[in-house]
User: Fold these one by one.
Assistant:
Number 1:
Amino acid sequence: MSGFYTGLKYTLARRFNYEARSAGLFLFPVMSVLAVVAVFPILYSLYTSFFNLKLTRPHRVPFVWFDNYVKVLSDELFWESVMRTVSFTVMSVVAILILALFIALLLNESFHGRRFISAMILIPWAIPTVANGLLWKWIYDSGYGALNGLLLQLGLIDKYVVWLGDPDKTIPLIANAFVWKEVPLAAILILVTMKSIPVDLYQAARVDGANLLQRFVHITLPSLKPGFMLVMIYETMMAIRHFDLFFLLTEGGPADASHVLSWQIYVETFRNLSFGTGSAMSYILALVTFALAYAIIKMLGRRI
């Protein structure tokens, strides 16, 4: 038995040597902070989702098991919010992928001023989200907005339009503001992937007589799958849980036209003060987001 303990002690000493112990000592403060500010709130919100917690009656908090989840999933407004979220996400991600691909193709070419354009194109992404929302709120304003002024000068409209007051235009207009901010980062990620494509492939294709379109379809697009996968996962997660623009531009209106899932979580939690159902919605959103990310990795990562 003493030999066993001696061997175990020797194995642990080899595995946790001076470098490992030093690294653990330096990482301990960071891991402690993360545990307090990230891990604990996540676990506590899961705990809260099993209780009927309303701040309007804080002393009566019954344990309800999965009733909050059942209540959320049987709510018609919840599914309407899901459909609006899906519409916003698909619209935004498709537009981001297409625009980012064209911008990456442009920046991949050699021309005068390419570095300056590459730097300038990152400005929308560097703008804080709140500033971006206020910027587009001013652009869309029905009284003095730049969009109305431009279209009026071009003769495309004869009077100022209340853009964010039309339920049919609200989601596309918010998606436009979201795309404007997110495209630069997506373009850079795709450009980095594009730079990693071996030049020999293009030279061999030219020797074989492949034209520009054929080289793009058979070499560029297949080689960009890692970049597309990264952009799709990141932008899908950002779009599904996006809240800032909906809060700053419309606050869920008009007539619930922009009442997406993230906005409903905010209303349920901080306006209705129903933290139990709000936490349940948050976990449903998180699980759906992880499932979509896994599906995208499985779909695009098979031959990478």
Note: The chain has 15 helices and no strands.
Number 2:
Amino acid sequence: MQAEQPLNVELAQWLATAPGQYVQAWEQKQIDGMVTNVFGYHAIQIGLPHWDLLQANRIPFKGRSCSPFENALGQSAVVINDPEYLPFDTQSIDLLVLPHVLECSNAPHQILREVERVLMPEGRVVISGFNPWSLWGGRERIPGLDPLMPVPAHMQVSLARLKDWFKLLSLELDRGRFGCYAPPCLNKVWLDRWSFMEAAGDRWWPVCGAVYVVSAVKHVTALRLVGPAWKTASKRVRSQAVVTGRHSGLKT
């Protein structure tokens, strides 16, 4: 019996299909706009290393990491690691990009904790994912139809859940967008014919896009040093002395 492929490997293969190319083109444009003005010294893309999502950024050092399964496919990366345990020092990365990483893991919240740990204060993370409440996600719930997305609906992380996780950490949602409003089609010709849906969907039903891209910033509350309460020395009040003459009280 053939072993089941990890989701991140299936996702990498799916991106070469017509709907995968459609999603990839939209996400590339959104992520380019979110990372172009992020500054610092270190930027890391986690997962899908064959897809360069840091090309629009000008940070001097850019690296890409991938899981051992992705590396076995020949998708070369600087670092080979599991995203649940990032091999970076605490507060050492200025920018992280995670394309569909959370939904390919059984421990997405652990990945976010690692993201928070390695990000510098005011560092930024950009995350993309499939929207389980889109037309594409609804296709999986129709009996007899093959799913269009490589990630099962129960594994997908909705934007509402992602926001809740951000609140538990020191990550604040900065911006985000839904996209890919074309109906679930396997053929590029039909996807192109439905391209007019992008503008209409963005205006009339924005939360129904097949995918989303969000950006969050790590905010660290400044520490306030509390020292001992210094007592102000009380001023001595000099009592007025009554000076009398040598012969005061003597009768003359």
Note: Confidence is low (pLDDT under 50) at residues 245-252.
Number 3:
Amino acid sequence: MKRPLTSHGSAYDQRSAMVFLAPMYLILGAVAVFPVLYSFWISLHDLKLTRPHRVPFVWFDNYLKIFADPLFWESVVRTATFTVSSVLAIMVIATLIALLLNEEFRGRRVLSAILLIPWAIPYVANGLMWKWIYDSGYGALNGLLLQLGWIDKYLVMLGDTDKTLHLITNAFVWKEVPLATILILVTLKSIRADLYSAAKVDGANVMQRFFHITLPQLVPGFALVMIYESMMAIRHFDLFFILTEGGPADASHVVSWQVYVETFRKLAFGTGSALAYIMAVATFVLAYFVIRSTSKKL
């Protein structure tokens, strides 16, 4: 006969579980928690590798210096512009593709497989590919526009301060749309079919069913895509490094690029760590407000 579990046995099981989980907690603390705390400690010091033996403790002076830098606020505006335009484009395109893939038609599986190709390409390879596409000497985009008669000579696209950020946004959107499409498509599949059946009985047309059933039910998927893609856009670095290196004339100098410049070019690890923490806090605040605003609609 099975003996009932006593409180003593339950406490023993909990202690045993903690013993077995202790190595995982130690490894997690060593590889995740400690670096985060240590980087914050570094952000409170004026640490420069050009003078590694003199590291004064400056409290929050690094943060104050960053907030007083006009270039930082210009990079914040560029980062916000890049993030908003990228996320909006990704959500619109991904929603349209998800609605298409949610229908039954011949070749749907092939189209779904093709959609995954941009997502499967590594970020560095994606950046190099788009650098070749935008190239002023032999780029495919210049060749296409020339064949269409829209331009009469090859253009230095990444050298135009008015076009640079838009071109980088286009490359980023192309890479991120597949994952966003999958997330929205999964949300579409979870919508109950009886909702549409009841709406048809009530005489609702296609547009009415879309705006009153589909869109409200897609809010969780939209929230997930918005949070994830916003985080990716705010901290994105690869394309800015490969395509422009912050240029031309600081036209693509975003916050993530400024973190790299301060840390690895100027070797100012204190300022670089402070910038990284500012990015992290901004990302968490954005995610909090998105989750809070969307949860009220669920």
Note: The chain has a mean pLDDT of 86.
Number 4:
Amino acid sequence: MELISLPFFSEKCGAAKSSISEDLAIINRVFHIEGIGQLESNSGASGGVRYMPRIGNEISESVVATLCQQLEDPERILPGGYLFMSDILGDPSTIREIGRLFASRFATLNIDSIVTVATKGIPLAYATASYLNVPVIIVRRDPKVTEGSTVSINYVSGSSKKIQTMVLSKRSLRAGENVCIIDDFMKAGGTINGIKSLLKEFDAKVKAIGVLAEAEDEEEERVVDDYTSLLQIKNVDSNNQQIEVIKGNYFQ
């Protein structure tokens, strides 16, 4: 998140620094009242102010409760026990709220970039990145000629147990960057574990992992432990057309 100096506001608004400081204090109070964030101030010659995304418990609980209700619609059940989620991932207002939830949780981690894998996690990644004001980096299954030289690894898919490949452009990351992985769905965590292995090739530090929904699967051992989920899909009963969705570990 960018730190903006007070002289910038003074020059842009044609006002004294003292007046700007008073205005920013009012804005900060409104942000707190509305539960949408806060302004963080740094003093000194290189100081300034930056927006830190925050979301109140009441709002976050409401957003997740609405998502649970939407996903429990039995018409979403697909063959193999999967759920149709494309409408949620394609709705701008819903995606913005999900991005704000993740950004609020990870705002203090000094994230340099958001990493996701093509394709369904891309809207979530951009929504989160927009609040954190950082770039999005997309890991792909196949190399693209427009991305130049790439680094590739093989990994074991958690669900199918197949050996798959993922690639990332060499120009995507600087060595030592702090990254946050965002994805739409996690079962055993094989894909996210693969991304973590790929990021090691860039000496990147995975500071956070956020997933929209995780599946409860007692038959498969999860290979990713440290993550934040908004939803947990506990049961998909295709025979009786029933779905049970609860809050994820975001609230723990």
Note: The CA atoms of residues 64 and 178 lie 27 Å apart.
